[in-house]
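queue> holo job accepted (3-acetylpyridine adenine dinucleotide)
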Amino acid sequence: MNKPASVPGHFDAVVVGAGFSGLYMLYRLRQLGLSVKVFDSADDVGGTWYWNRYPGARCDIPTTDYTYSFDPELEKEWTWSEKYATQPEILEYLRFVADRHGLRSDIEFSTAVTSARWDEPEQRWRITTDRGKEIRCRYYIMATGCLSMPKSPDIEGAGRFAGQVYFTSRWPHEGADFTGQRVAVIGTGSSGIQSIPLIARQARQLTVFQRTANFSIPAHNGPAPADRLEQLDVGRDAYRHAARWSRGGVPLEPTDVLGVTASESVRRERFEAAWEQGELFGILNVFADQGVNPASNDIVAEMIREKIRSAVKDPETAEALCPKDHYFGTKRPCLDTGYFETYNLPHVRLVDLRKQPIVSITEDGIETADESFGFDAIVYATGFDAMTGALVAADVAGQDGLSLKEKWAAGPSTYLGLMTAGFPNFFMLTGPGSPSVLSNMTVSIEQHVDWVARCLEDMCEEGLETIEPTALAEAGWDQHVQDCGAITLYPTANSWYMGANVPGKPRVFLPYIGGVDAYRQACDEVASQDYLGFRMTGPGGDRCRDGVVRSMQPDVAMVLEFVAALGLPPMETLSDADARALMAATAEGRPPGPELGEVTDGVIPGPAGDLPYRLYRPGGPSGRPRPLVVYFHGGGWVLGNLDSDDPLCRDLCARSGAVVMSVNYRHAPEVRFPAAVLDAFAAVQWADANATELGGIPGQLAVAGWSAGANVAAVACQLARDAAGPRISGQLLICPVVDSDMTRPSYEENGDGYILTTALMRWFWDHYADPADRGDPRAAPLRGDLEGLPPACIVAADFDPLRDEGVAYARALEAAGVPVRLARARGHTHTSVTMVDVVISGAPVRAGIGEALRDFFPSAELQEQVS
Ligand code: N01
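queue> job finished
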């Protein structure tokens, strides 16, 4: 690589922070032969473990895992004394690492970086420090940690207290002696919960001011678990490899037990095992669905509340300590040693700030709405401006002088949590948009550092000197981070994950929750695809392969992985009977969809015999007439029936407030084109004529369908227009087949791998219609006359071969003067939008569909009923 810079004050790289990430970054940059300067405002290494010296401070990931893995010799030479090591031991470990690798010589302690400016002409960062130094470097790397910027105490009168004031995050090196004192602790996050039992041992009187009760489980600290040590002894490399490719950075088999369906005994057994184990990832893995399903989450939460009630003797205190305002896990749960039992001590009292908020800190204590308290010492355990605080406070300005603070005014925006557009050669280790705080930090840190080191090495080999993400790649990643969060319960909590603990901070889900494994995969893919989404320049040329690394909804991707793992034969290779049986089998065991007021089956006369139908009525006052939607199921005119689309019909009914009538039609190949559309039109005519008997409102009729069902629905609208009736108020076409032309780009892009394939579509067409008939507008409604058709809502999914024909139909309808609402199902496949209660990210799309259905009807009453 580059030769070490020889000009004084010039370095290849400057790193801020000498904690876990800064130390390892220095080590790797040195390996590359780069000249490096590390700055830290502390007078020693340690980062978070330098500052957070409060009594009881420990890690909350077992130290067998919370440790560097890059140096096998180091692993042999260092033995952790406990399952969860204390802060002094972790600090000692980092000192040991720094000394072992001679890292201190490149670290300038007691020096803070005060500003960093990108110098475009020089293509260098200009760094200034609080010691008045100015330094130039090519790469600027912030290794400042996620929880390093203490939150200022946003409490009235905070500066007035005349007694001793302590912050858990800035604890004095000489420690604090509370013997004989009246002490207040404000805050019951991890820092409060770890320190309170120890402060209680010294204090004469301890009063804890709690704003939000927090979930905590006993750490059961002691020697490192024997089974874990054995695993490491047997195969350390395999264990570390498993950690790197796990969800959280600690090897753990994710459970597939669902809380909502597990028996009471299984629930209890799994919970008690996790409770006994005393590990965060264990208690977060009691049920597969506890992070996404409120009912499942509540099962775990209630079991923890039971434990709290049995640990705390005073029922009123116990109840106040029971968290009830957020789902378990959505705020970082704590590990404790004797926390809840501390409240049984006669000199310890809990003040519930929800009942009596703090009015002011006074000179000699704290005044709440109901009481005045006198104290000798106040301990603030009030947390951090997490994940972005240290970065935006650092006065970093990129191209055109834009500061990070300005760029991130509405929330952070990053590519992979590693870089941000407009700030060339500026790297963040464990930045927002990376797994960081949701993972075992040491594993995430090593992954980030290794990625950055590899990137710099690759750049050097190619003669490239600058790198920055493109706006497209960054926007795509930001969206993916939010999509991953949105399918979980996490964004519902007022947590520091959401920036909610800092007044005025934008409410954005900050970490990447897709998993350490998925994240590593994405980073590796980016690197191996010529650094997809990065623009790189230098003597070796300018290059940019622009793109988005993840644009599929995360739960859709999971479904596809699950389906692929089943190894099912392609549908088009099966006989008709087997294909139908397979479709029926895949529908078994899926969630049933919402409960409704009434669901009844019947038959109506069709052109060639009876047609079965199922009628869905929403809840609410029975007998009240409602608009009627006639729905046709999907399945390529070959597969499907009333059962196949039952959850979707329930969902449409619940969301629209309309009566939904799902009608079966004759299938191919037994009966080919145009039987299906003739049946569909007959059903629409019958429904219109019998609206009152069906509980509908005469004259308020819409048609709907998915896939081939949307095809027959669209055709029914054209036939109704041509026949001058019935009058149709709207057509809802979900991922419709509207043309037989299979050459559109979406067939090329999505023709394989997303369940509905090009081969399967061809099979469907071959079953349904002779080639000569496929241009008939009754088979390909896009080719028909579109004037005078009812208003339409068309859903087009990104990863659907039919996407472009759906969009084409929308455009053609618009051109013909038909009002159209085109709903793009971002990140979805042909089938995923219909997977009610399986693909959570489909819910907002279906909410939009429900709204579109309501908008078809003039009935204000319907709007009110649903809203
Ligand atoms: O901070 P927190 P922390 N008036 O934000 C309360 C890591 N960590 O330092 O929830 C009254 O969790 C606030 O109340 P509320 C770990 O990731 C790890 O404890 O905002 N109260 C909350 O109770 C952790 O999650 C370890 O309503 C106020 C508390 O102060 C993260 O660091 C150990 C208030 C702050 O809790 C942060 O933990 C320690 C106000 N004005 C920390 N403002 C390990 O075990 C805030 N609060 C490795």
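queue> The two ends are 63 Å apart (CA to CA).
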